[in-house]
Write a structure and sequence with these properties.
The chain is an alpha/beta fold and 322 residues long. The protein is built from 12 helices and 8 strands. It folds into 2 domains: 229 residues, Rossmann fold; 73 residues, no CATH class.
Length: 322
């Protein structure tokens, strides 16, 4: 049993390895999952001409629960399968949900000159402050997936934004350099090719506000590290990719988090090495609740429950205890 009194994660056959769990997570689609909860477009100005865009859903009955803000991963957006799935389970449990797109992602791309990265926490801080008072009245819970999880954990370690009462990070690359090196391994060739194509697609899209020089540099990148070297780092004031990874990683901030925070990561995640989690002294911060199953893949966690993935079960139980 876990600290949340739910069964420890056991993968459901045939999804028994980290790779199969990861791939099954990609294949799961819940396009109609939010049909019972109509969405409302929310635009949150960032004060520099750009805005974050999200979709707000309200549960069938107003139970005065905190607003749960869901943040996607690299090359994702509010329609990513794991975001849609979690939103549906939360709404069924009576939680209001905001599916928030990071700067330049998804429907926010046409409204932004800037672009998100794994450590751009100031965007989230400003956006949360811009939420209408009625939406913040019951408190805010931040939930980040993959890159969005790193963003949430780093933000909290820097200082809790007003109104945030709890958080969760799921499959977060808290050591960005280790994650980048892992993706470059020959065994991850297919994953790496897919991710690189996705980030190039974002930044080379017709509506993306990238200059001709940046577009040429992006096209020339042959790896994710090279992409961060020629685009992410210079665009955001980092010396190079290594400097970006060192300064944007959440791991150095974990001990400073001051609200209850659920941290979920599978030690067989093929993209993100488990060492950064396994070696962290979790006892230094009793507000952190780490759940580190041996298996589960990257945002996979396809377990014995056919209705929902294990990380959603954990999240719902964690929120119920607030």
């Amino acid at each position: 049993m876990t600290a949340l009194d739910i069964p420890s994660f056991e993968p459901r056959a045939p999804w028994l390895t980290g790779d199969l769990q990861t791939l099954r997570g990609w294949l799961l689609r819940r396009d109609a999952a939010l049909r019972s909860w109509p969405g409302e477009r929310i635009v949150l100005p960032l004060g520099d001409g750009d805005s974050l865009v999200g979709t707000l859903h309200r549960p069938a009955e107003d139970e005065r629960k905190p607003l749960v803000v869901l943040l996607h991963g690299l090359s994702g957006c509010e329609t990513s399968a794991y975001i849609v799935e979690s939103a549906a389970h939360l709404l069924a449990g009576g939680w209001p949900v905001l599916r928030l797109n990071l700067r330049g992602a998804g429907p926010a791309r046409a409204l932004c000159c800037g672009y998100y990265h794994a450590g751009r926490t100031e965007d989230l801080r400003v956006a949360l402050a811009a939420l209408p008072t009625t939406m913040r009245a019951g408190g805010i819970v931040l939930v980040g997936y993959s890159l969005g999880g790193n963003l949430v954990l780093k933000l909290l370690g820097e200082g809790t934004p007003p109104g945030v009462v709890a958080a969760a990070g799921i499959s977060a690359p808290i050591d960005l350099a280790a994650a980048a090196a892992c993706l470059l391994r020959p065994r991850n060739f297919v994953y790496h090719r897919h991710i690189l194509a996705s980030v190039k697609g974002e930044t080379l899209a017709p509506e993306a506000r990238t200059s001709p020089e940046e577009r040429a540099a992006i096209r020339s990148a042959r790896s994710l590290v090279a992409f961060d070297d020629v685009f992410t780092a210079p665009r955001h004031g980092f010396a190079n990719a290594a400097d970006y990874y060192a300064r944007a990683s959440a791991r150095p901030y974990l001990a400073e988090i001051a609200v209850k925070t659920l941290v979920i990561h599978a030690l067989d995640d093929p993209w993100i090495p488990g060492e950064a989690y396994a070696s962290f002294p979790w006892a230094r911060n009793p507000l952190l609740l780490p759940l580190l199953p041996r298996r589960g893949g990257h945002l996979g966690f396809v377990g014995r429950d056919p209705e929902r993935r294990w990380h959603d079960l954990c999240l719902l139980r964690f929120l119920a205890r607030l």
